[in-house]
Amino acid sequence: MRVLRFAMAGLVVAAAAGGFWWYTRQRALPVPVAAFQQDVPVTVFGLGAIEAQVLSRVGFEVPGTLIELAADHGDRVAAGAVLARLNPISQQARLARAEAAVLSADAAAARADAQRERAAAQFTQKQATARRRRDLASRGVGSQEVAELAETEQELARVDLLVNAADAAVARAAQAEARANLETERATLEKHTLRAPFDAMVIARSREAGTALNPGEAVFTLVAPESIWMQAFIDEGRAGDLALGQTGMVTVRSRPGHPIEAQIVRIGLEADRVTEERRVFLRCRSCPTMPVVGEQAEVVIETARLPRARLLPEQALHGFDGAGGTVWTIEDGRLAQRRVTIAARLVDGRVAITDGLPEDVALVSQVGSRFAVGRAARAVAAP
Fold first, then answer.
1. How does pLDDT run across 221-257, given as a tens digit for each residue?
2. d(CA 256, CA 239)
């Protein structure tokens, strides 16, 4: 009896082992496989914000007290339009003094020129007299002493002419300096009026009338509306196919579900070394309203379209290195593995495979824990 019980137990164990072997090796395991899809868009995703390519924080170049504000938040202003003014009284007084200084310098220059001309006339007269005296002395008609005296007077007249010419040059220099100072004071007075440097929209006014301002202190923040664009940060691992002119759909946080069509106008030439992202700039083709500068936005950019591809999650690839990996397949009713190269990575975490696998080889889209090479399997539609 004991031998019989051992024999029966052995049969049970053998049957269980056989059943386990059949269950794990011979029973066809249902496996989801990837189907072929047509016209697959390849997109990349990025986060960023609405920015202005032309943005200026403008203020006065000179100190003073703000007495007038001619623009406010939300106003559109033309280039050259008055935005604000400082109290000009002190500068107007300096300008008046500069104008008086110019009049004085003009008079001094005119007087110095007249004296130079007088000295020139006297020199000419003395020169002629000395010539006659020398001629008379050489013929024995005139006195030699008188001739020498005439030459001395000629030399003194020449020196006087040089002195007066130098005085006239100094007067002209002082005149030029006075005029330059006048232009400086006029320019300084003009700087008491703040004007728009370009056609712009006022997005901020940071000072009020009565404020004492230092040079360079911002009063307004201006943007050129036509320069509004979106700055997006794209994972550099997915940025290789980006190109100027590609279309992207931009969605700002204040208008979810209302994407705006935009176009890539600039691609950054330097990646962020910390976040490993590249900057991409898009400009909307037809902005419905003035966007809010600094508002967060999302962008989806289509970089390519695949005519036909099989898609599977990245986690279905073993040893994925960004360019390829090992996939599970069903060949002749059994599980197998193949090395494949991917055609593109999609924004939803899937990869596209376009070649490298025969079309009759089923591509497994969901890897199970009981997978083993050679295990019987049957393909089922992926959920």
1. 999 988 899 999 998 888 888 999 999 999 998 888 8
2. 25
* CA nearest neighbour of 74 among 160, 182, 202: 202
CA atoms within 13 A on the CB side of 203: 19
**Over the chain, what is the mean pLDDT?**
85
List the structure tokens of 235.
């994972």
In 3-state terms, what secondary structure has residue 1? coil
C-alpha 14/C-alpha 98 separation (Å) is 117
Mapping DSSP to helix (H, G, I), strand (E, B) and coil, where does residue 114 land? helix
Task: Please state, in angstroms and rounded to a whole number, the distance separating the CA atoms of residues 202 and 75.
Answer: 5
Question: Which amino acid belongs to residue 255?
Answer: R
DSSP 19-71: HHHIIIIISPEEEEEPPEEEEEEEEEEEEEEEEESSEEEEE-SS-EEEEEE--
DSSP at 196? -
C-alpha distances in angstroms, 87 versus 62, 82, 208, 210, 366? 11, 14, 13, 9, 76
Q: Rounded to an integer, what distance in angstroms lies between the CA atom of residue 136 and that of residue 143? A: 8
Q: What are phi and psi of 189, to 5 degrees?
A: -65, -40
Q: pTM for this structure?
A: 0.67
| Residue (of 247, 287, 252, 282) closest to 268 by Cα position | 282
Instruction: Write the pLDDT tens digit of every residue in 69-109.
Output: 999 998 999 999 999 999 999 999 999 999 999 999 999 98
Apex CA 379: angle with CA 376 and CA 383, to 5°? Answer: 135
The structure tokens listed for 34 are 């990837």
Q: Which two tokens stand for residue 45?
A: 């995703």
Residue closest to 293 by CA, chosen among 247, 252, 260: 252
Token pair 């824990």 in the structure block, residue:
369
Cα 209–Cα 212–Cα 218 angle in degrees, nearest 5: 80
Residue 187 DSSP SS3: helix
Q: How far apart are CA 118 and CA 212, in angstroms?
A: 55
**Assigned token pair, 211:** 């404020």
pLDDT band at 216; cut points 50, 70, 90: very high
pLDDT at 15 over 60: no
Sign of the CA dihedral running 171, 173, 178, 182: positive
